[in-house]
Every structure is written in C-alpha cells, then in structure tokens.
Amino acid sequence: MSKQPTASNSGDLQYLLEMLDALVAPEDYLSGSEKHSSKEAIFAAYQLQIRQIIPFEKMGFMVPDEDGLDFELEYFWPESQIEKELQEQLEQYIEDRTFSVALQQNRPVILQKGEHNSELEILHVLATRSKIVAMFFGVTGKIKKELNELQLKMLSIIMANCAYALDSNELATQIREYNEQLETKIEYRTRELLTAKEVAESANKAKTEFLSNMSHELRTPLTSIIGYAESIHQGLADPVAQNINLEKTKKQSEVIIRNASHLSQIINDVLDLSKIESGNLEIEKMVFSPVLMIEEVKNLVTLMAKDKNLELIVHYQLPFPAEIDSDPTRLKQILLNLSSNAIKFTESGTIRIEASFVQPEQKMFFKVIDEGIGVAPDKHGQIFEPFRQADNSTTRCFGGSGLGLVICKHLSEALGGNISLKSEIGKGTTFSFSIATGKVPYENLIQTEMELFENKEDDDDFKPPSLQGHVVFSEDWIDNQDLIAFYLENTGLSYTATSNGEEAVEKVLEESPALVLMDIQMPVMDGMEATQLLRACGYSGPIVALTANVLKDEVEKYMANGFDGFLAKPIGQKKFYSLLEQYFEKSSISKKEQSQDSWPASDKFKTMSANFASSLPERLKELREVLGQGDLKQFAALVHGLKGAGGSFGYPEITVLAKEMEKVIKERAIKELPYQVNELEKMINDIVLNQ
Fold first, then answer.
1. How many CA atoms lie within 13 A of 496 on its CB side?
2. pTM > 0.90
3. Are 56 and 78 in contact (CB under 8 A)?
4. Rounded CA gap, 238 and 244, in Å?
5. Which DSSP category does 442 fall into?
6. Per-residue DSSP letter, 572
7. How far apart are CA 89 and CA 61, in angstroms?
8. Helix 673-689 to helix 652-666 angle, to the nearest 10 degrees?
9. What's the DSSP call for residue 69?
10. I need a labelling partner for 433 at 20 to 30 A (CA). Which of 149, 303, 524, 687 fits?
11. Whole-angstrom Cα distance, residue 445 to residue 443?
12. 637-685, pLDDT tens digit by residue?
C-alpha cells in the first residue's frame, strides 16, 4: 500500500510545486518584440525567475570582454542608482580573489554581511560546457532563515538555463548577421556581374571601333606607300623614258619613308600594348642624364611644332638631378607621345614641357601643356583605356590608334609613378606624370642654369685642366687604377698608385701629397681604417673617398671618420677634374706641352675600355666560382668592383645590374643571385660581341 501524505509532507510538496512553477520558460517573461533580441531582455526575464526563488533586493550581471580577461557590469536591477554600489562591491571581490573563486564553481558562492539574519551577497557563474558567459551578483535583504538546498539548487538551474539562452541568442544573432551578409554579398555580386557585363559589352564595342579605326590607320599610309612605290618602279622600268625627274622621285620617296615610319609607330604601339596586357613589358633601368634625354625630345618635336607655327618651350625647375636611375627609352617614349599629341591637337599657341624633381619623394615630375582643343570632363578617364579616344570625331579629324595614352599610363606606373590630366574644352590640356629616380644625393643636384646646360657639352670637345701637384690614390681594381692614372696624367699632376689601405698609409706618410684619393672597399686594410690611421699619425691633408656607396648615412659616416669629401663611382671625368680643381692651382705649363688626350675619344681610353670589356668573361668566371663556394663576402667584393668600374668605362648597364645584385645580397635573397649572374653573362656576351 502506498503511503498517504501527511500535513507536513503536503506542505513540502506544495513548496516544491511553487519552486517548479518559477522555472516556467523565460519566454513567458519576454514581450513579443523582445524575444530572441538582446542580452538585456534575457537578463530581465531571468531576473524575474530568480526573484521568485530568492528575494534579492539588488542584482546585476557582468559579462566578459572579447578577450575574456575583464568583466563589465551590463545589467542591474532595480534602478541605475545602484550601479555604482554594485560595481564597487564587485571590484572588492575581484581584488580579494572571491570573484576568481566563484568563476571556478558551478554553484552559488554565498557571503554573509554581519551576524545572523543579516544581508546575503551571492555570486554565481553562468557557464555552458564550453565557455563562461556571465557572472551573477545578488544582494538580499535581511532574511529570517537560511536559504535551503532546494532554493540554491533551483538558482543554479536558472543560471544554467540563462547561460544557454545567452549562448543560443548569440549564435542566433551570428546566423542572422551571416544571412544578412550573405544576402548583401549576393546582391553585391549580382551588381558586379551586371557591371562586368556592361563593361564587357562596352569593351567589345570599343574594340570593334578600334579595329575600324586601325584599318583606316593602316590602309591610309599603305595607299601612299604602294602608290608612290609603283610610280617610282614604273619610271625606272620604262625603257622609253629618257631621263628620270630626280626631284619628283625624291619627294615620292620621302612620302614613302614618312608613311612607313607612321606604320612602324602603329605596329610598335600594338606590340607594346600586347606586352602590357600579357605582363611582359620590359623595363631596362640604367643611370643617365635626364637633361640630355629631355633636350633630345625637344630636338625631335621642335620640327613638328615649327611645321604648325607653334612655339615649343622647355622649362627646368632647379635644383635638378644630373643623373637618375630609370629607363631612358621608356621615359623618352612617354614624353614623345605626350608632346606629339599636344602638337597634333593644337592649332596655334605654345607647347610647354616642364620638368622638376622632389628630393624627399625621390621622384621627377613632368608636365606637357598645350593650348589645344581640350578634353571634356566626362572623357578624362576614358582616354587612358585601351582602344579609346575622346570620341570618334577625334579619330576622323586627327587620326591615331587610341593606344598612345594607355601605353603612357602603364609606362609611368612601371617607372614608379603615375599620370593624370587637367583640361578645359577650347583652352587646352595639361598632362602630368611622374617617375621614380632612384637615390639622388643632394650633392648630385644641379643648382644653376649654367650647370644644367654643361651636361649638353660634347665630351669629345672636353679638355681637362692643367694642374700641378702630387696625388696618392688607392684602388684595388687594376682597370680603375689605370683610369684614374689616365685622368691624372692629362692634368699634369704627378701621382703614386696603391692597391690597398696599408700601402696607401705608407706612401702618404712618406710622400706627404697635396691630395689623397682613398677607395673604401679594399683588401688587407679598407679605406675607412686607413684614413683613421692617417689622421692618428698626424696627416692633415685632404682625403677624398672613392666609393660606389653614396647614400646619405654612408656619406655622413665617411665625414665622421676623417674624410673631407667623396667622389661617387662610376667616375665621370668632369666631376673628377672639378674635384681636382678644388685642391690644386692651375699650372703655368701649356696644355700642348702636357700632350693631353681628349676623353673619351683618345686611343688610350678606348684601349683601356676595350681591355676592361675583354676582362669581363674572366671576372664572370670568378664570380661563379666564388658563388659556388658560398663565399658571399668575396662575391660582394667582386660585385662592388664591377659596380664602380662599369659606368667608368662606358658600360652603365654593368653598374645598374651590379647595384641590383648588391641589394639582393643585402636583403639575403641569395636564391636570386644565380639568375642575376646569368643575366650578367648575357650582358657580357653582348658587350664582347659588339667590341
């Protein structure tokens, strides 16, 4: 027989049922708009359940930050005035490590304030199986009896439910956000595809128009070439003809040449564009004079400008670099294209080419300014696209393939810069572009107009100064030794050559020269150590560094270690003689008595240059052997020597490649060295074949 309930256990059963009623689903406490919406709504619902189990007067929930290292009070009840009070009490528990203990318990941590029947403070962690979601903190009023085990167990159940509700809500939020992002991505991708379709259709239309224009551009000069060639052929083949009108034939041949050149330019443009689109555009950097290159462009387009009675002006903004490291052919191509366009689209007025240099950016900036027909604002971006011109009427009126500007855009970017334009219909257009120059030290900047146009002098006409005095110089490369000796002989100066720093110190202290030229990288003792030793021994004369390393910090290092100046390799004759004139007086002996040779036209220099070229295969062999042995220090020394000697003997491409190899060595990208040695071999083979 079953046991009948008594009055006592009947009361316990009623109490248990009341407790179970408190565990009713928290959704019943959420309004329709709040369900599955926020942490605050969930906290508010569960705090109602909690208060049915235990009569808390104050409570709050703290949630961890993203890193899980700190907790912030996010929800509190009953009012905002208690926030500060709760926060202060929680900070106290954090300091005395009570908070830390509570985090590790999956049950209530009860703290009693004062004696019996006083307030209780309860901490309870809210955690799922995988993570801590929050921390509950509640404060009761004064209670008459202790909390029973059922109340505490029910509190833990509510905390677990709340933790999973918060976790589920976070997951639901993430899913909702992911769906929203997915919808946005689908919408964005759809727009992208529609745009791509429109672009493809536009490109197809542009190509069709381009082929039509190209057909016209090719057929027009071909008509003249074929027609005049047939006329000349008939004149030569006619046996009846007693004589040939040479003047007429000459004019016809000039028409053929001019149209053939036009065809050649079109073909070159198409090939360049093909290389650009396939990623095979070649950029060949070398050290060159931008002034000479710009003046060459000026000479080429001046005749075109004169044919239309246009004035061509070139303006240099000083200071201006004497030399830059870039691709002269591609830079010339950009300037010629923009200048030719300026002349083509201008009927009267002036064409202006401006060139400037900004040292902090190590870039040159160019402007080609015309007073022509201008470009409409909505066409500014279009003209840099392949197969495009401002409109079809441009092609009909002025001709052209529509490839020039897109090639200029890619070339300027390949040279480390960009291109843009400003234009106004009927008033003219300004094309601006920039290129990177490589490192240009302040000492290599031209400061005056007189210096600017010194670069235009013909080297064959240059005559070195007549000087008197004695020089000791150190240089471990025999080719460079011969070159420096040749330069010094041309001035009438006496000299002593040494091959390392130790020899240099000995000769300087023995001979007390008026000037010491000291190479930096040498065997036995380098130039830096030799200079420091000379200063320590009391030599106070000028010492000038001969070096291929002329970065600002390196130059400052030379000056701080006893040098008075430096001369950059490759050694150019004009800079070399200019340096000598700073330290020596002019000689009374005439230049005729000194039997000076003109550089580089002299047979002696040509012989030295040829000897250097002939020695390159042996130097290449040595480089390969040293690299194969893994001796990077010796490999770097050999490369450094090539960097200094190449440009000095008329092979700047050797210097440029050697600079790139030094950079690779410095960056420890050793795997690239064999490829660069192979490139050097091709270069040397070309030099030897062309000797």
1. 18
2. no
3. no
4. 10
5. G
6. -
7. 13
8. 170
9. S
10. 303
11. 6
12. 888 778 767 776 777 778 778 888 887 887 777 788 888 888 888 888 8
